[in-house]
Structures are given as structure tokens and as C-alpha cells.
Predict the structure.
Amino acid sequence: MSKIKKCLFPAAGYGTRFLPATKAIPKEMLPVLTKPLLQYGVEEAIEAGLNTMAIVTGRGKRAIEDHFDISYELEHQIKGSSKEEYLTQIRKVIQSCTFSYTRQIEMKGLGHAILTGETLIGEESFAVILADDLCDNEKAGVLSQMVALYEKYKCSIVAVEEVPMQETNKYGVIAGEFIEDNLLKVNDMVEKPNPKDAPSNLAIIGRYILTPDIFDILRETKPGKAGEIQITDALLEQAKKGNVLAYKFEGKRFDCGSVDGFVEATNYFYAKSK
């Protein structure tokens, strides 16, 4: 299997927890300080050595495409002024990678969103970043850590962290056996289990590396929790063949899909910028 070069961003969701702000603005474009959530994710992928960003969008998401493009009128207006430096980071992003887009016509779950991205990925292993989960690390980013593991093990990998037992019903939860420090071979996965039924408190967060056979598995995956096609169910099929690892990553993660997490992330990055 070749090196990973593509990162898939499922970005078609409605962001209902941030209404009315997300009525007209994609939730992925909500800014933490001056940078949209999705840009943080793209920069993490670039740092990990990936250069092709595949974004699954939906209706009302044109702002995403416009953000990762040149705005000639804006460039002209601020050229030569002190404000020009504000565009330095996004210019670097645009020059560092390519972007491709496809639309998810119906919202049928994360598994369906990933399957929708097959046309952009093809038959190769790829990364997945959920922009809602904003991660930060003083050293290598979470995806960089996972890419290094993939190069060693050549299989699907999910990022996990310990969560309070009473919160397992918010996540996909794994069980497994340690094969290295912070690395487990997965033998069970459950989507949003009640705390009393959870196999552990190791929750999957929005970072994945997936091998291309996941697409065939997703095509055969029946709707599960909430009538959606769950990536957890498809990964469990891979895990039954011994082909999924779970990695307890180094770094901080903020759940920016919730208002509390979004505010926490904003305060953290503001303090860090001082």
C-alpha cells in the first residue's frame, strides 16, 4: 500500500446545535479566533504530509469552496496594506494542496458520507478528519502520529481517548488489547452505547485512517443507530479480520460540535496566541 496522500472531510451536516448561526453559514466555517474549523483540519492534514483534500459537502456549503480559493477583489483591495498579512496562512494552504468536492444529497450518517467520498478517493488508503473535533499538539499533530503508525502496520486506525463513562452514549466506543503503548488491536466496537453496555470508556474521535476495502463494506452495511449508516459498524467488520487498530493519541481535543467545546477551544487558542 502506498503512502497516504488524501484526506476526506465529511462536511455536509446541518450543524443544528449552532442554530441560528448555521442557518446560512456552514458549521465547518465557524471561526475559532480568526480561522475556520475546517482550515485547522486542512492544516493538520498538510502537516501530516497529505496534499489532496477531498471534501464532501451539501446544499448551502458554497462558503467552503470560496474560502479555499483566491478572492481577487479582496486581494486587490488590501494589496500593499498592513492587512495583507492576514491572508498569509490561507494563501499558504491553497498553494500547498489541491481541493476536490462532491455533494452528499441525503444525510444518512457518517458511514454514508465517507462512502459518498469514494469518487474522490479511489482505491487507496486515506485519512478522515471531522472538523468538529479540533485537535492541538505542541509536537506532531494527531494525524501525523497516525500516519506514522499506518506506515508500520498498513491497516485502518481510529483515534481514541478516554471519556467519562456516563458520556459513552455520545461516541463510538471500542474494546481491544494493547499491542504497544497507547495502541490497541480492536476486537469490538459499539456505536453510542448506554454506559452500562459500553465495552470500555475509549471513545472514537474524528480522526481515522481507512483502507480502501472500507467502501465495499460500507455498501453492504445496513442502517444502524438512528437509521444511519455507521462507520463504526463497517469498522467492526474490518476488526473481525484483525485489521483495525485504536490509537490513544497525544494532544488536546476539543468537541467543537458543542457550544461548550467551541467556547473552550476559543479560550484555549486565545490564551495560546498571547
Notes: The domain at 6-273 is CATH 3.90.550.10 (Spore Coat Polysaccharide Biosynthesis Protein SpsA; Chain A).
